[in-house]
Amino acid sequence: MKKPVNKYHNGVFLIIGERSCPIYNVGEELKVENFSLAVSSYKPSCLYLAQKIANIVSTKESISRFPQTGGRNSKFDCGGCEGLIHFEYKKEKEFATLQMKLLKESEERRRSKRLDMFFGELRKLDIFKPLDDQSLSDLTVLLELKTILVDKIIIKKDTPNNHLYIILNGMVAVIADDGSKTAEIGIGEIFGEMSLLTGEPVSNSIHTIEATQVAMLSVKNFRDAIKKFPVLQMFLLKLLVDRAQKMTLRSGNITSGMTGELAEINAVDLFQLINSSQKTGIVELTLKQGKALVVFKEGEIIYARFLKLRQKEAVYSLMGAIKGRFTYTRGIANELKNLPPIGGFMGLMMEGVQRIDELQG
To answer: Which domains does the chain have, with CATH numbers?
Structure first.
């Protein structure tokens, strides 16, 4: 005699409440169809929830007999892991309860209000430029808006962080262990992403240095967003690389392939860093006036070119540059290796600084 096989009935379930669930949000649907459970394509499937729904839809009584307007037999919970969600059966394309209808209407009003409040501001931010308007609208609804007074701790070192922060107005500072300020973060910039990506405690405390308005994305919505919008992953990867390079420069090191802004480290400091490290390589600079090239051998400048200027005159002109980008590449061509220094490095720097002072005076 063959063992009877459970029949999985089709059905749609709606999440009506959640308490610290790491995956799902209120209002999301879970659909059982043709022996499979469908959830949002960018979200993982929770095995606790899948097992619970499997038990529900494999009962002898057909799921089609659940009350269509809610009731004791159509509401369930997942059983819980680190969090808990409540869900109910609903008739497909209809709301199972008046509660969910009101929830949907409330969500639509909230969405409209959020879009009116700061969709335009978010559209200007670099992190969201890769998103089309519809994707940005979807993401905007997930954000929480908060104003934090001056001289307040937003996140504290060595504690868990639960949000990504986007600064809409104001300024915050990264605070070292000794209380000194190591960096400032302003309008359009983000913080808190590293601890969300790694799951590690916060590595630095963040304080407001003026009243600051932030848009916050919870850790759950952050994880969902980077799965749903892969372009955000690319932005964050580039951001982390840029920040790592800035930290390397601040520590007095430079490595091959490093790029940066002269606004972060001016040309004089960059040249001195290469000299003190006795590096052999090429610095390429892209300025508003044009491109430049400075070749170093064991920390000494052996060749320089900027527009029609060559050697010392090119170096002196570049020392006044404060805007533009640079790229450092290790190593030089064989035909350059026998070139002598164009002058003693410190003498070049002193002469260049004197010329800049004379021009500014």
So the answer is: 11-96 (no CATH), 110-246 (2.60.120.10), 259-360 (no CATH)
